């Protein structure tokens, strides 16, 4: 088993109970550099699904983590992002396929087993149970404009689905290698259903690796988002990772750029300067002749 690889100020909340989902899961909270010193400062928050894979090689799938703590630590210190609190929300193993799915699609097209389609319920857990606890425990900026959500694969599917359903809570989305194949590409239909006059104010990072099966579907999703009014390189960033696979290592590689896009550093503060002193008049004195 790999050794623990936690970096920085990380707080643990094991067995966090959900009455909505009737289960428990671990949550880890990364606090950015300066959190302890700046006692009146509040910080934006990014919630990441599959929290076992986010910070720690000892708990991650295949022993490969996202290095989210190391990456955020470095980018914050180099002032390349706004310092952000990251909440790693663990999945619950066999319930993952149910909690991250927006519909009751087939788990395997060749089998009859279906997901329970509990994504909306999982979203209620995040919004009504976990987020209030995080906001009460830590110095967060609780508004939707400061709150992000991210994940990969089914977690990417869940991220965009929850962003479309709950834009009053989450507006910064890291949609990494989303499972667009789910339920005959139901994610396409969810985007098509967005009213033209009511496009949610989401800032979306969307990516895929070109070694992933069906990666071209991400291009289709990009095009649908553009049709609905998102603007590339403005509130939509789309990346095709040449040779990128459907792995934790690939998502760790792209997390740096995703954080820079979603949490850019604030513009430098403009300090008021006093008005210039009026110049003293130049007095020409004529010589006096005696």
Which descriptors would you attach to this protein?
290 residues, alpha/beta, Rossmann fold, eight-stranded mixed beta sheet, 29% helix
Give a description of the structure:
With 290 residues, the protein is α/β, with parallel strands linked by helices. It has a single domain (9-262), classed as Rossmann fold. Helix content is 29%, strand content 19%. The protein is built from seven helices and eight strands, in the order βββαβααβαβαβαβα. It has helices spanning 68-77, 96-99, 119-137, 154-165, 182-192, 216-227, 248-262, and strands spanning 9-18, 23-31, 45-48, 85-89, 147-153, 172-178, 203-209, 236-241. Strands 1-2-4-3-5-6-7-8 form an eight-stranded mixed sheet, sandwiched between helices. The longest helix is centred in the middle third of the chain and has 19 residues, at 119-137.
